[in-house]
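## Example pair
The file below holds two records. Each record gives the amino-acid sequence first, followed by its structure token line.
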Amino acid sequence: MRRYLSLAFAIAALTGGAQAATLEDMAGQMIVVGFEGSSANAASVKAIAGELEAGRLGGVMYLKKNVASLGAVKAMNALFRGSTTSLPPFITLDQEGGSVERLTNDVGFTEIPNARSIAASNSPEQAEAIYARMAAGIADLGFSVNFGPVADLDVNPDNQVITRFGRAFSADPAVVTAYDAAFIEAHHAAGLVTSLKHFPGHGSSTADSHEGFVDITQTWSPDELVPYKTLIDQGSADMVMVAHLYHADYSDGDEQSPSSLSPRWIEGVLRSELGFDGVVISDDLEMGAIRDHFTLEETVLKAVGAGMDVLLFSNTAYQRPGLNQEVLDILLREAAADPAFAERIEQSYERIVALKSRIK
């Protein structure tokens, strides 16, 4: 495990001289989960902080149920950040604007329009100023990751998950890229990490992966990769979120694996063809497209085997306080049996360390 030397130096730079990470530490960093509770005093929130402190968890995901007030959110995030003595946690949320917002006017956070409206009424420069104000508010609350921008193309007027809610900037890849760049720059200026989504492109789909299996074979176009390619080439892509989409021409053997569990999509298209060497994160692995077809163990093993670095679980379907430990146990059992799988964990950890070194 020659990587340990380089990793030790990377971690020492972050922590002021910590010992080399164990495989359990590395695997723990690959897990991000949703949680119960909306107060730093809640037992469930303290328990999650304890998992972060123990290194069995790499980050948390906020949903609206976790947001009682801005003060409570700030206190929880301070607890999460203070729980780790080595790598900072990924403290994540979806704050796109429009209907996809965890922080709302109801709790005193200024909402902004959806992507389609932003692009229709503002230049990319004006959009960057709008996103800068939003990002500053997010950062002030202690978050470190915003799951955006949406890189999908608005190409299917009947699309249920993107077009219906105005989440895409345009049907034109160049326009989408320009506004994505504005979103990213605004967040970088606030010290936040971003995540392009939903690779390889959810805008042409005819179904919603939250609900079940989504086949994009007849609707998807390579144009949907253009924003990813351009932003990766520009060095702007922090993370790429992979959706649960099936395309017969990109299948792995006889398996109908969605893109989030597909080596062909992740290692083949995203890494080899588009040249992305950063952190790959899954869309929520509890969506119907995954949960209805794969067990938890199958999901974890297939995702990591396909090249996934961070496994995202909303913990809304499983609803188990020990979910991160279950996932960690699966990772460690497989790593003990398969040296190649253990090496995959190390590779993911190296990418996560590099990205977390940028969190303020």
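Second record, same layout:
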Amino acid sequence: MRWPAEAKARVSELWLGRQMPAVEIAGAIAAEFGIPASKSAVIGIAFRAGLSFQGRLAASPIRPRRVGPPAPRVRKPRPARPRAEAAPKPPKPAPIPKRVPPGPVGIPESLQVSIVEIREGQCKYMAGDPRDPLSSCCGHPTASGSPWCPGHRAVCTTPSTGRIGGFMPSFRRAA
């Protein structure tokens, strides 16, 4: 909504008069010009006119305006509180050594079997860089159900620490 220039001038006049708050100025503008004015609209008009920081409290007789730097703050000393004697803390328990998985059980020397020539039951551990076209596999006999010999299986796997299996409810419901 566009405000007429007379209404804006009246807002500036009432704002600078510092006689009434923005709510009352809004009521006066609504009564004089028939404009549905609000407190926020009046503050917006005053702000755009450059009057927003010259409001009622700027030159109020109650709060005189300070000139110059603010006064330094002075901290009041707090009264000393009697401290309770703290009980000595108990010593921390010795750290529990972490369980280290057993080391390799003897990694055998690679037989250098080509990846094309490797058969079922032979260790498929890559003896060199897998990206190298001339790399080879270990080739020793494997442990049952594993693609690696016992030495490479110890290197490639970690022992299970948790429960094996899916969700097992702690109770059974009767049918």
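Notes on the second record: The chain has a mean pLDDT of 76. The first strand starts at residue 113 and ends at 114.
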